[in-house]
Amino acid sequence: MNKSKHLTLEDRIVIEIRLQQRESFKSISRELGKDPTTIAKEVKNHIQFKQSGAYGRNFNDCLFRKDCGHRRLCDKKRCNRVCSLCKTHRCSSLCADYRQEICQKLSKPPYVCSGCESRRGCTLEKRIYSAKSAQKEYEIVRSESRRGIQLTEGEALRLDALISPLLKKGQSLHHICASHVNEIMVDQRSLYNYVAAGIFSARNLDMPRVVRMGRRKKRKDGFKVDKKCRIGRTYPDYLNFMQEHPDATIVEMDSVKGKTGGKVILTLHFCVPQFMLAFIRDANTAQSVIDIFNWLWQVLGPDTFRRLFQVVLGDNGSEFSNPSALEMGLQGEPRTRIFYCDPGAPYQKPAVENNHGLMRRVIPKGISLDTFSQGDITLMMNHINSYKRANLGDKSPYEVFASLYGEEALRRMGAELIPADEITLRPYLLKK
Fold first, then answer.
1. How far is the CA of 215 from the CAs of 88, 163, 170, 195, in angstroms?
2. Do 418 and 298 share a structural domain?
3. Do 364 and 381 belong together in one domain?
4. pTM for this one?
């Protein structure tokens, strides 16, 4: 067995070649002198996603592409071409009936398309293992792990305001982390380093045990509430759940960030009516997301909330790392189902990503969100949700949502319909 802990570029090249030759992980591991699980983890951790079509056929991963009969979904009214054959638009951005299909072969080893006999005629999303790309990603991770303190000024001030007063009261960092796990979002060991480095106003002298005791062995204390929170909530689990419950309402969840360390917006996008809610948060913490879900639970009531939020699909951001608190009501009753996209695959929730483009017309990228209030964000979303869409039959998301679920739910969430001629999607909408 090879005693080297890390794979080299030569090892990765061998893996890439053998995958193309359809060799098993066990066969590759014997050749490299590694454990089969090492090869499996290497491949899964460095998968590249490519949205490429086949020879003479454009990319299309819609489940209904072969029997599609939709026409004129886009602004080209004179086009009579079947929309699934169009090379200028994506079905996911225009069609309300779009459902993504993922090749079932990718759910088991080797997890990539290398060596697949059907690859040349396949128009689905491809998953590729590249030795050079894997080596580059490995080197970046290795470089970042050896750097010093990585903390923005805004994040340092936020943590200092929370942690230092409690340390000066005599509380331990472990107690503080356990009590504020959804607000701190930083590893406990890192906090000890920040205090020792003088980042906070509290000092080691405020922690008597640290002064008396020597250095301890390293421990892997994570900040997430549930280290196995994604078990049973992965994207394949989501696809299986939707096959069993095809009529379930889907809400895509994401965060929109401004300046690093500043305020963040939580977006909740209802896929079918294309209606989006947005909430400003002081920091990108799990607790802030939980508070918004609890507020919606109280405002809408259990029955309406369960009807609207049957399935919630989010990414792998740390702000969504406590799914149990989101899935359960204030008294511990079940209220929704949380699922996660694959890492590095935002296109698995295309509806919310596309709608962010309308938000960026009002709040361009790079603009700090610190000056905006919830009233500003609600005003912006009212204009966006009143904006008529061609793929909704020239109706607005507000009108479609109201026809499906009633205007009472909209009123409770603070939504209002803006007259068509008054809709503004420019930055001056929020200028004071």
1. 61, 21, 20, 14
2. yes
3. yes
4. 0.57
